[in-house]
Design a protein that fits this description.
Radius of gyration: 27 Å
Number of strands: 0
Strand content: under 5%
Structural class: mainly alpha
Largest sheet: none
Order of helices and strands: HHHHHHHHHHHH
Length: 248
């Protein structure tokens, strides 16, 4: 007689314990394949990360941001990513944890189809600081070249900057590649040329302008300057009036 195979309660409990590292409801909604994942496959991924120096306490954040990682294949999906960090970015194994905690999305990206093309594009532009890219701007490596990086450079050129000038700006401030065109660039450009009455070419020397919050930093600082200038104008006007009265 055929017997139905039942899942071992102990295995089910251990799988639940592994999934406690993440918000299981969110993870299952974002990665339905988790329903079919075996305990051994999840444990092998956890063990692999620990072998790379990533701590147990780091995994909740990593899996929470990228549930897809829980159904990755170690040899074909994850190993190439760490090889990329080591060989292309020159990250020592002792620093893997720092890089991954800074940008967990690296682990959900294809080394061949995503990470290497992004690095190649940045290097073609003239970017050479691999350490800064690994430890501070790794998010650029998970940004699609065609849909994210190139359009940002194109927007700067649409403002009237040459390609060489636009490239110079992003090399001085890599964060320019991370800003949203509609929500960041356009409002700040309008404020810069409108309310502040400045010329766009000034941004070539200070592209970091786009990194500051428009409402929390730029507008309040600009208003302070305007009020200070107005106060100086009033004081000078009063001083001139006083001098005229003394001379009469």
């Amino acid at each position: 007689m055929h017997q139905t195979t039942k899942t071992s309660p102990s295995n089910s409990n251990r799988k639940s314990s592994a999934l406690k590292l993440v918000d299981s409801r969110k993870s299952l909604s974002q990665n339905p394949s988790l329903h079919e994942a075996s305990l051994n496959s999840i444990q092998s991924i956890i063990s692999f990360f620990q072998s790379k120096g990533i701590h147990q306490k780091d995994l909740a954040k990593i899996f929470g941001m990228c549930p897809k990682i829980l159904t990755s294949i170690v040899n074909s999906d994850l190993n190439p990513i760490f090889n990329f960090l080591s060989q292309e970015l020159k990250v020592p194994e002792s620093k893997f944890r720092k890089v991954i905690n800074k940008c967990p999305r690296l682990l959900a990206s294809s080394a061949k189809d995503q990470l290497k093309p992004s690095l190649f594009y940045l290097q073609r532009l003239g970017f050479k600081d691999l350490e800064a890219l690994a430890y501070h701007d790794a998010v650029l490596l998970v940004s699609n070249v065609e849909n994210t990086l190139i359009p940002k450079l194109g927007f700067l050129q649409s403002l009237g900057f040459s390609k060489e000038e636009a490239v110079g700006m992003v090399l001085r401030c890599l964060a320019l590649f991370t800003f949203n065109i509609e929500n960041n660039y356009k409002p700040k450009v309008e404020y810069f040329t409108g309310e502040m009455g400045r010329k766009l070419e000034e941004l070539k020397e200070f592209p970091q302008y786009f990194a500051f919050s428009l409402d929390k930093r730029i507008k309040p600082r600009h208003m302070e300057v305007v009020e200070r200038e107005e106060l100086v104008r009033i004081c000078l006007k009063c001083l001139k009036a006083l001098m005229r009265s003394l001379q009469s």
